[in-house]
Every structure is written in structure tokens, then in C-alpha cells.
Amino acid sequence: MYGPNPHSSAEKLFYSPIEAAIRWCGLVNYEASILELTWNYPERLISAFPQWPCLYKNLEKILDAVRNLELRYGLLGIAVSPGTPVDLKLLTIRHSDLKSWMFHHYPDERPSFLFHEITPDQESIRYGTYLILLADRDALQVQLKSTETKLQELMAELAAAGLERENLRSLADSAKEISGQSKAGFLNVIGALVNTMLGSSESGRRHSIFDSQDLLSIL
């Protein structure tokens, strides 16, 4: 976020390469004298303005970016397709394209005509926003931790349920395997009970009121 630009008079919708270089170097106050020089050959700037070496360097950076299609350009303010031949005297660069190019290729550079300085009030707002975002992040971390704990508990319950199911299945399989032996054992027990019920004590007294197995079968 940026505040009002104190150099708004230096802003334009589009610039010639030399105009952009002048503003990049902060030499707007000397723009008229610089533009009097025929700048079609950037190397002339070195001898004409030796006190401002950045002027030539920045102009070369801009022209190099145009030649290598890193920086979009146009003809008298009208955008053209990349690679379209344009006379250097008529070549222009849009403000937004210049700003985007500088942001990505020269992130440490913040010329005032492109990037407005942040005011104290805006800095305070940014800090307040940061605190709000920080609080939201902390709350989300707590919620995430709680969710992870619940997920672990659920996984443990599912694992326990799966183990219990396996145990029941194992018992069922075991019951199937010994069902034949169990049946024989049960028959022996039943036979012993029947004999006892139809038998008599040593004194001759019957254990049951039934005289035979036929009566038991009726019941």
C-alpha cells in the first residue's frame, strides 16, 4: 500500500525511454536540458552529463528490456505486439508496464514516480492489519490442533472397533472348527442326565416321576 505521491507531476500515462530514465534517476528538475540532447545514442549521455552516470545506465537497462521483450512497449502511447519494430523516437512505455517490470526485475528500486511512499497513518493501519491477521492465525492453529486431537481419538476408536471385530470373527471361526466335538460332548452330557433322571437311589427310590424316555420325549 502506498500513500499520495509527492511527485505526481512527474507521472504520465506513458513515457519515452529517456523520460523514464530521467524519473528513475530523480532528475525531473533537469528534464528540459537533458531532452535538448539528441539521445538516440545513449552513449552521448556519458559525455554530456558525466555527473549523472545513472542516467545512461538506467536508459540502457530500459532499452535492453525492450529489446529482449521483458518490458512491453508501444508506439506513441498505443501498445503494439511484442517484437513489432518501432522507431526509437516514437517508442513509448506505459506507466503500468514500467512499474510491473521494475517491481519484478529491480525489486530494490522504488522511484517515487512509480511507487508512492507509505505515510505514518498507513503504516499504523498496516500494523493493525498485521495484528488482526496474527490473531486469526493463532485461532486457526488452536482449532487445527483441536481437530487433529479429535481425529486421533476417532482413529483410535476405529482401530479398536476393527480389532474387536477381528476377535469376534476369530471366535466364530473357532466355534465352527470345534462344533463337531462340542456336539458329541453335549450328547454325552444329555445321556448322563437322562440316565440319572430315570435311575434310582441305593434305597430303590426313583429320582424322577417318569418311568421311561418315551414320557420325556412327549414333553
How would a textbook summarize the main sheet? 4 strands, antiparallel
What count of helical segments does DSSP give? 7
- Spans with pLDDT under 50 lasting ≥5 residues? 1-8
Distance between the termini: 97 Å
Question: Can you tag this structure with a few keywords?
Answer:
coiled coil; mainly alpha; 7 helices; 219 residues; four-stranded antiparallel beta sheet; disordered N terminus
What does this structure look like?
- The protein starts with 13 loop residues before the first strand and ends with a helix.
- The protein contains seven helices and four strands; from the N terminus they run βααααβββααα.
- The protein has two domains: 8-118, no CATH class; 119-182.
- The protein has a four-stranded antiparallel sheet with strand order 1-4-2-3.
- The chain is mainly alpha-helical.
- Mean pLDDT is 77; it is low at 1-8.
